[in-house]
């Protein structure tokens, strides 16, 4: 199998495409799986593109926590420029809802609280996401994770890489202040994005009927044109309505939103957060979406600790030389702990602090 290498990573297959780049599943020489984002070639010469990509790299270096896909490596000034982040197996929230329908109220509230926790970590380092939407949330084996900080910007930056009045974000999930092209955005912009995302998770529809981008932006910028919250459970109408307030100062803080989401989740279900978290993972993570390393991949190299990276099903068992057993000594049964080794490896890969 001959595949292209970028930055020491071997590209295996495409995962998707966004406004700034294409995303590929790739593998390092020691079998680390990553999502490799490569900037689109036709954008390279555009003003500020490499600088924005470099900003994404610097932004990801600051972000931490289990709800955000961690940075692995990057080169913003290579040709092509690229960025590798932790590969999170699972479908996006958009894909899950489209395929399986809206989430139950308790689990949607629990997932929302987990995402609020992740955004709080982002805001702690003076960073905004600015493009929170169902397509940028991966429902992994340990719950939802936020991805794609390509539009992130430091709250207290002294310089700006976008032109005055430029619109940054996805129209269907943009806050009114983003539509107005305001520069001095606050964490309230991500509160709005989270609220819009939760409306979709609970109902399967957006805040406004599908239309062209221009009409959609006009509706969002009109204070009297309220978002469509039909289908949102009564328990969350008040909170989501506040999170989607036209005036950013009227929106609740992340702490308030997270607290209220947890209250709803536990009250509706009668369960504690441990059980709710487990149920979120069981409902939303689908193992068949996971991309595995092809068995015929000549690279990556074998793990230096000696275990194979991928085991083929029904693979022939290598012949071994029988070992003589002393009949006077008691025999011992050796337990198969390969499953434990694999589990520890997966946990280690998800925790950069270990």
Automatic annotation (TrEMBL):
InterPro entries: Kinase-like_dom_sf, Prot_kinase_dom, Protein_kinase_ATP_BS, Ser/Thr_kinase_AS. Keywords: ATP-binding, Kinase, Nucleotide-binding, Serine/threonine-protein kinase, Transferase. GO terms for molecular function: ATP binding; protein serine/threonine kinase activity. The keyword Cytoplasm does not apply. Transmembrane segments: none annotated. The keyword Transferase applies. Pfam families: Pkinase. Gene3D superfamilies: Phosphorylase Kinase, domain 1, Transferase(Phosphotransferase) domain 1. Residues 294-331 are annotated as: Disordered. ATP binds at residue 37. CDD domains: STKc_PknB_like. Residues 9-262 form the Protein kinase domain. This is Serine/threonine protein kinase. It comes from Micromonospora globispora.
């Amino acid at each position: 199998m001959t595949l292209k290498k970028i930055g020491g990573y071997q590209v295996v297959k495409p995962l998707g495409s966004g406004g700034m780049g294409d995303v590929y599943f790739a593998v390092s020489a020691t079998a680390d799986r990553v999502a490799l984002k490569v900037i689109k070639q036709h954008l390279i010469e555009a003003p500020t593109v490499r600088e924005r990509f470099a900003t994404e790299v610097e932004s990801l270096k600051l972000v931490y926590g289990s709800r955000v896909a961690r940075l692995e490596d990057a080169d913003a000034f290579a040709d092509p420029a690229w960025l590798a982040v932790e590969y999170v197996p699972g479908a996006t929230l958009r894909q899950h809802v489209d395929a399986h329908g809206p989430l139950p109220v308790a689990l949607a509230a629990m997932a929302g609280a987990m995402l609020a926790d992740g955004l709080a970590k982002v805001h702690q380092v003076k960073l905004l996401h600015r493009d929170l939407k169902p397509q940028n949330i991966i429902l992994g084996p340990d719950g939802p994770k936020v991805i794609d900080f390509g539009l992130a910007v430091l709250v207290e930056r002294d310089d700006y890489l976008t032109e005055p009045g430029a619109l940054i974000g996805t129209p269907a999930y943009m806050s009114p202040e983003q539509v107005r092209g305001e520069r001095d955005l606050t964490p309230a912009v991500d509160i709005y994005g989270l609220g819009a995302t939760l409306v979709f998770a609970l109902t399967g529809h957006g805040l406004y009927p599908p239309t062209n981008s221009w009409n959609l932006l006009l509706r969002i910028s009109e204070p009297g044109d309220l978002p469509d919250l039909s289908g949102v459970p009564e328990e969350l109408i008040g909170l989501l309505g506040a999170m989607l307030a036209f005036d950013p100062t009227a929106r609740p803080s992340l702490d308030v939103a997270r607290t209220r989401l947890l209250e709803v989740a536990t009250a509706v279900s009668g369960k504690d957060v441990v059980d709710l978290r487990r149920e979120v993972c069981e409902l939303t993570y689908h193992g068949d979406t996971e991309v595995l390393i092809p068995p015929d991949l000549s690279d990556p190299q074998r793990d230096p600790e000696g275990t194979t990276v991928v085991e083929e099903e029904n693979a022939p068992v290598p012949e071994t030389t029988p070992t003589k057993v002393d009949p006077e000594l008691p025999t011992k049964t050796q337990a198969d702990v390969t499953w434990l080794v694999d589990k520890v490896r997966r946990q280690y890969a998800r925790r950069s602090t270990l």
